[in-house]
Q: What sequence folds into this?
């Protein structure tokens, strides 16, 4: 669980989550390797700290995909690699 949810979910969040799941027909929209397809989570596509709980930035996700992808604001760029030969 992220630090944002330390105090637990709110009634407003549970309502928003239910609306997102219904909107997306309880189907995982992320479809990563190992996806179970049955959505039980609402995933913040741009990070909760950036967009809040706006349904426009939420998609239904299965638990596996939501936890695998994690917080999109924490994704790091791949490390730089020196180019030693140009094609």
A:
């Amino acid at each position: 669980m992220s630090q944002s949810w330390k105090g637990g979910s709110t009634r407003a969040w549970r309502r928003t989550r239910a609306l997102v799941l219904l909107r997306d027909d309880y189907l995982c929209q992320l479809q990563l390797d190992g996806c179970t397809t049955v959505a039980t989570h609402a995933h913040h596509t741009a990070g909760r700290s950036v967009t809040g709980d706006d349904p426009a930035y939420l998609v239904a996700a299965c638990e596996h995909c939501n936890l695998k992808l994690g917080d999109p604001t924490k994704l790091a760029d791949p490390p730089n690699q020196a180019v030693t030969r140009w094609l």
